[in-house]
Every structure is written in C-alpha cells, then in structure tokens.
Amino acid sequence: MSFLRRGSQSKKLRQKVTSTGKLLPSRSSSSISESRRISFTSTASTEGVQRWDDTVSPRLLASLSSREQQRQRVIFEVIKTEKDYLRDLCVIRDIFRDQLVASKCVTGDIVNNLFSNLDEVIATNEELYERLATLPYNGIVTGCVADVFVDLFQRNRFHSYLEFCANQLPASEQHAQLMQPGVNASYVDLMAQCTSKSETRGFDLPAYLLKGMQRLLKYHPLLQQVKKRTAEDRHAAHAVLDEAMRLVEQHGLVVNEQVRARENARRLPQIQRLLVREPSMKLLMGRKEVEHLCTRTHKCTCLHTQSRAYTCLHTRAHTHTHTVVRSHARCGRAAG
Q1: CA–CA distance, 16 with 27 (Å, rounded to integer)
Q2: Which of 1, 19, 253, 313 has the greatest number of C-beta atoms within 10 Å?
C-alpha cells in the first residue's frame, strides 16, 4: 500500500485557533514567549468538519485499507479534540479571567488563586495542537503522531499541569465562597454573564477548570487506539507509541501525587482545629496519626485504559475525613 509523500512544511498552512482567522497580538506575559495570542473561537479550515472521511478525496479513501482508514480516523479525533480543548482553555482566559480582571470586583490575589498558571497550560497545548495540525498532508498522516507527545513530555512541557491540576479544587472552593449570597454580588453577576455567553455553552467556571485533568486522562486511551489500528509490521511506530503512553501515564501519576500533597497540606489545619474541639482525641492521636487521617481521602477511579486506571481525589474527601475523625472521637469517649 502506497501513501502520498508529505510535501514541504513551508508549503503547508498550519491550522490556527483564532477568532477571525488571523493572529491576534499577545499581552506581555512572563509565561508565554510567543508574540501572539489565540482566541477561543475558530475559523480554521476544519471548522464544521466532523469526520475524517470528509477531508480526503474519494479516490484516496478507496486506496487505503480498512485498518488504515480506522487509524486515520483516530488520529483525526486526536487532533480535533485537542483543538476543542484548546478552545476551552481560551474560554477560561478570554471569557472568565479577562472579564473578571477588567471588572475589578475581586483582588489580584483572588484572580491568581482562581486561574493559577493558566497561561503556561495554554502555551503547552498550543504547541501540541499546532504540531499535530501540521502532520496531515492531503488528509493523511503517514508519520507517527506519538513522536509529538514523546518530545513534549521529555522536555517537561506538561509540568505546567502539576500546578494547574493541584489548584483545581482550591479554585473551585474559592469560587463557591464568592458565589455565596451576600459575599460579592458583583462577582455573582459577572459569572452569570459569562456562563450565559454562547462560547461557554452553559458551563460554569469550575466545570472548565476541571477540563485540564480530564484532558490528561484522555491522551493514553487515544494513543492506545492509534496503536491498536497501526499495522503490526510498523515496529518503530509501535515502539514510539509505547513510549508516549508510558510518559503520559507516568506524568498522570505525578500529577495525582501533587494533587494529593496539596490537599493534605490544606486539610491538616482543619483536622488540627477539629482536634481542639475534641479534647479526648489528644490522648489518642499524635501528629503522625493526624497526617494519616488527612491521607484517608475518599477515592474514585477515573478511566485511563481498558486495563489501567488512574486514582484521583474525590471532591468529597473533606466530608469523608471529617466522618472518620468524628468516629475516632466517639470511640475514644466510649473507651474512657
């Protein structure tokens, strides 16, 4: 089976995620070195294209085996969903953060608490998407899509997710506090305006902040589907795909550990205050026992692959920990 050879990269236009099809000027930022800024809407050449089959000619489609067609469809999904995710990141920045900053209804510290290192995450996924978007030539990807993932993960470009994902739950709690009646009416009104915009599709800020972890969990199964549909005799491609999946999985575990450590650090003062209200527990528990309770968080399993799973912290961790502590306290009083 023959494939069309890729032409010169200089002759191929990259797909961009822009509001008008043109590059927009970037604000000065220490975390983004590019002199441009993408926006949350898109008029790229694949806008409205939902199927890979619509991007290739019927003659070329007929020349490919059924398995190769399936492989191209999965690669198309990888690129398309990455573009959609990049748009979501830009919604967080352009709709929620920038308008919040312009309104001046909260302090700069609160803005930083809510959005953390968002610009670094956008820069990471902008690079990923633009490199993936240059792979197809006449709709066909002849190379290995995993090469891009291996390079980015080996260069630690996804380390920005350590801070971003660890900050997701604290940011959601900060948002919930600000949304309480009587706390900050201006913030409530602004969030309602942002959520009502067509670009947000009815999702609120916490839902968008969660998309970072959700996207990380999708890379492994997507790459696994590419491998499943790659011919067995393409040994080099299989080796690169295996390495990409290993790096993605390894990074996910590191992110989970960062999230767990951040939560333990946040919950420990709450447990200590609880001990003050439960004097009988002071005789039963030392600092190590208290720290152990902080780690006994309720867990749930997130889909990673058919046979592997990441473990992520459930948002009900605090409720579960509080119940455990109260149970220990009752046991201590009964023993006394």
Answers
A1: 18
A2: 313
Mean pLDDT of 83-110: 95
- Mean pLDDT of the region 81-93: 96
Phi and psi angles of residue 280, each rounded to the nearest 5 degrees, phi first: -65, -20
185 three-class SS = helix
Tokens of 296: 């006994």
Beta-bridge partner residues of 310: 302
Q: Which residues contact 136 (CB under 8 A, 6 or more apart)?
A: 55, 75, 76, 79
**Residue 41 burial class via C-beta count within 10 angstroms: exposed 0-12, middle 13-18, buried 19 and up:** middle
| Cβ neighbours, 10 Å, residue 104 | 10
pLDDT in tens, 196-229: 999 999 999 999 999 999 999 999 999 999 999 9
Q: How many angstroms from the chain centroid is the CA of residue 209? A: 8
Q: Got the DSSP string for 107-128?
A: -HHHHHHHHTTHHHHHHHHHHH
- Report CA torsion sign: 279, 284, 286, 288: negative
What pLDDT digit, counting tens, does each position of 35-73 carry? 345 554 443 434 556 788 888 888 888 898 999 999 999
d(C-alpha 144, C-alpha 157), whole Å: 19
Report the distance separating Cα 208 and Cα 188, nearest Å: 17
Distance (Å, whole) CA 328 – CA 23: 59
Q: What is each CA distance from 273 to 51, 169, 202, 260, in whole angstroms?
A: 56, 21, 38, 20
CA distances 110 to 94, 101, 116, 180, Å, are 17, 10, 10, 15
How far is the C-alpha of 267 from the C-alpha of 189, rounded, in Å?
Answer: 30
Ranges 8-17, 128-137, 295-304, most confident: 128-137
Helix count and strand count (H, E) for the chain = 14, 2
Q: Which pLDDT value is given to residue 286? A: 52
Task: Please name the amino acid found at residue 299.
Answer: K
